[in-house]
Amino acid sequence: MLRLCLLALEREENVAVAYNENVLGRRLAALPLSDTARGLIGETLARVWHNEEMHAAYVREALLRLEDPLVNARTFFGQVAGLAGGWAASVRQHKRWSDAPFPRATATLLTWVGAATGRVPQEVRVHLDYCTFQAFCRYNVHTESTAWLCWQRLAELAPHAPALAHGQADDFRRVAHDEVRHRQVFKILAAALTDHDTLRPDVTEEVLCTRLRAVSTVSGPGVTSGGGN
After folding, report:
1. What predicted TM-score, i.e. pTM, was given to this entire model?
2. Ranges of the chain with pLDDT below 70
3. Which of 29, 77, 88, 201 is most buried when burial is the number of CB atoms within 10 A of its CB?
């Protein structure tokens, strides 16, 4: 369970950077969509971002409550690794070499280091390059699925590790449910966009709004569903 919590921390810190509204906001502003569609997508993804930040803070506090120097050190390392990985991924996926050569070079170096240390497997590396926003959404359908698996397993193990879980198995289940919703958000966006990042002919702004609002409520540990709306 400790290993899973450390893995969850790194992953949540990673996406807290990758989903940052300052990062995605610039990408959304360049999409060939109407202001209404861009605003709707941006608002939805900002909710997902804040949700992931809550997850990161929650699991970090759960680890630090153990008051174990070694765990504290591993927590710090996982947090830094997650932040660095999220930054590198966001640069490689959203910036071309011609737009930002130095950040791209730095991000590429970090990716190579991650690959050499086994932290960035080949299955992930193939997606860490400049891509359409639709492809970015398809990639995150899979990342959110793996996040759900991690939190679901934590919920199952929580009763057997009271020192780490503090009796909060329901919080782990709530986070797992959040990840299911995040996966649905990215799945809806991937299905709504063409290979050129325009809305598909059969997807109107009204249809997109209805689909996203059905799944984009915010919960998370200690927060009731819809509390972020």
Report:
1. 0.86
2. 216-229
3. 88
